[in-house]
Structures are given as structure tokens and as C-alpha cells.
Amino acid sequence: MYCKQGCRQQAHIARKLAATRGLGPEEVLISRAALEELQGLLYGLQTALEDVEDDLVSGTDQAYREAFDWLRRACLPLAEYWIEPRAL
């Protein structure tokens, strides 16, 4: 399902180009900078989860609220990040 005909055409062209370069249907190319940014965002999420686990040991309502707020703020950059596949 595509949002419009132009997106469908672009996806078709990308699949054809990938096939000529030997990429399978499940493989994509992204820039090193995009990969490093994604890895950094995932690391931030991982450390936030570890912090939240420690915070929840106290079990107070305030600790739960603060832990959720911290986790939410840590997740937002990752939720807003988008990677565009690159053409060869």
C-alpha cells in the first residue's frame, strides 16, 4: 500500500536498482552517519531503561511517575528519528 502513485513508482525504481546491485528484497543501504545516529539513540534508550529499572526498586508512586517521565523523554528522539534508504 502506497500513499500515492509517486511513492509506488519510487519504490519500484528502488527495488530494480537494488536487484541490479545484488541486494535482496530485505536489504537496504543507509549512510554511516544515519547508522551511527540510530545506534546512539538506541544506546540512550538502553541506558534510560537501566535507570528506570533502578528507580522502580523504591516502588513509590512518585518514583513511578519520574521513571515514566524519564523513559518517555529518552524515547522521543528515537520515535522521531527517520532513516531514508540510500540509492547506490
What does this structure look like?
With 88 residues, the protein is mainly α. It folds into two domains: 1-29; 31-88. It is 68% helix and 0% strand. It contains three helices and no strands. The chain has helices at residues 5-20, 32-55, 61-80. It is elongated, with a radius of gyration of 19 Å. The two termini are 24 Å apart. The model has no long low-confidence stretch (mean pLDDT 84).
What keywords describe this structure?
88 residues; mainly alpha; 68% helix
List the helices and strands and how they pair.
Layout: H1 5-20, H2 32-55, H3 61-80
Helix pairs in contact: 2-3
Question: What's the Cα radius of gyration?
Answer: 19 Å
What composes the largest sheet? none
Strand residues, percent: under 5%
Mean pLDDT: 84
Low-pLDDT runs of 5+ residues are none
Helix content: 55-70%
Q: Number of helix segments?
A: 3
Overall outline: elongated
How far is the first residue's CA from the last residue's CA? 24 Å
List SSEs in N-to-C order.
Answer: HHH
Count of β-strands: 0
Class of secondary structure makeup: mainly alpha
**How many discrete structural domains?**
2
Could you write a compact summary of the structure shown?
The protein is mostly helical and 88 residues long. It is built from three helices and no strands.
